[in-house]
Amino acid sequence: MTDQFDPTARYGRKHAAKLQRETGHRPAQTTASTAGPDDDAASGSARAAADTTPAADGPTVGWAFVRSRRWLGYFAIAVVFAIICALFGMWQWDRRNEAVRQNEQIAQNYDHTPVPLDQALPRASSWDDDQQWLRVEVTGRYDVDDQLLVRNRVHNGQPGFEVLTPLVTADGRAFVVDRGWVPTGNRQDAPDSVPAPPSGVVTVTARLQQSEPRIPGRTDPSHTDQVQSVTLADVADKVDTPIWTGAYGQLASESPAPAESRPLGWDRPSADTGLHLSYFIQWFLFAAGGFGFLGYVMVQEYRNLNQDDPEERERALERQRRKDAKPRSDDEVEDELLSAHR
Predict the structure, then answer these.
(1) I need a labelling partner for 197 at 20 to 30 A (CA). Which of 140, 187, 264, 319 fits?
(2) pLDDT per residue as tens digits for the range 276-291
(3) Measuring CA to CA, how many Å separate 41 from each of 31, 35, 37, 45, 221?
């Protein structure tokens, strides 16, 4: 730190001129021709006094720098960053709320007392989002001749198929039952075997699922019993009997039980809400961190620009005293010893 403040060297001529105007500095005007002996004596005394008087501290900037275009730009960037973080945070909050809604719906419908199919789906195209996982009961005969396989279904990392078997009711309509999953066989494009459903009249309890959307860019293999997805409008084209097109059912139970083991069923679903809540909090912490970092940089620049201010000098000395008073860590002692031996 120098005893003499040089604003031109530190801030540039333009800023130095501004500081000079603010502090009221004016060049001294002397007229040698009009000075008399008394004036010369007074001038000598003044110069002697000036030589013994300590130099005044240089001008300080204060917080005026935050009004500069550069810092206004920093503030704008911080605000935009905070808005982006808030938008991502609210998106995670919406996803968390959706997961909570799904869990509530699963809890309400999954173990619900079975509802007659005709009551839950009075029309072939009937469907309501609140009906997902609702247990329904229907009686009929499985139509094995129109049984279909859904391709590219994965269970625990293993590829396979889901088995769709129409259950033909007494009124001649068929309700599509997803009986479960079977693994890919040795031929890769089909399972080695598909467990047969019970024969005769069967009472089925199933959980409702909405018809799946078509997969863009994929078409069902022609002249086969396979489909790309449970898109009931496409399934209807492959089944001779009119079917319910609004929803199908994942098999929960059937009576009588089949003679052989069923295809693999499904675990109870659960939507994770913890991660979404964690991400929501993190995004808002990022937003606050952006302003915190900006504040830190602002304080550092204030200290640099105002280091000639007596009050700031005292604060800097106090910070250094506190730092020196702290016990040094082992790493700091080791670094000091290594530096001394170099």
Answers:
(1) 187
(2) 999 999 999 999 999 9
(3) 15, 10, 6, 6, 114
